[in-house]
Amino acid sequence: MGITLEFKQVSPYLLNRLKEFPDFTELFLDAKYLPDSLFWEEFTINQDDVGDVEWFNEATNYYTDTLEKLKTDKPQEFEKIKEDIYLIKNEGKEFYLDIDKIWKFIHFLLTGYEFDVKIPFLIGKNSNDGLPLINAIFGAKSLGYDGSDFGLIYFTDKEVQEIAQALSDFSYDHMRERLRFNGLEKENYDYFLNDIYDKILKYYQDAAQKGNAMFLDFG
Description:
Layout: E1 5-10, H1 12-20, H2 25-30, H3 39-42, H4 50-59, H5 62-73, H6 75-81, H7 85-92, E2 96-100, H8 103-111, E3 123-125, E4 132-134, E5 141-142, E6 151-155, H9 157-169, H10 172-181, H11 190-210, E7 213-218
Antiparallel strand pairs: 1-2, 1-7, 3-4, 5-6, 6-7
Helix pairs in contact: 9-11
């Protein structure tokens, strides 16, 4: 199957609230399945497929079910955050970026290191190939929420600004040079260079322009 990765913008205010009440992050994540969410503009349901229809009916109730569960199981926390429930719902429905299972290669493309090499800083230079290093995936910090399949991490709004600027300065020449340095043929990676990377760049630039922070949800 493999682990996938989604980027999801979040306002600095809501990020701080969810850091304080991490259990309510599940509500934020479930909001994308609400019937009027942007998610369903990208995901097509086959109305003739019983399994698809059943999943749609189940998924569109995730948010409501989670909300009722939190009210019951976390009544004191709910009282403290209830004024932000509307914000959680609305931000959770906004556009997210799904890069599926190719995050390992994106991390390599941006840093020059494999994903299991711990990088202690956000922006810098790879000492091996001398090219820019942008730790735009594993430089994030844990939220303290364990409901995500493989973990939910985040960048603050200031870190998003740094990453967006670094990505803007990270040219295709840098990418091609990194591939050559590692003995990889550019033609085999054109999809990553011309499509996926461009989407990540634009999503980070959009977040920076809006002053947003960023969730990274591994599932």
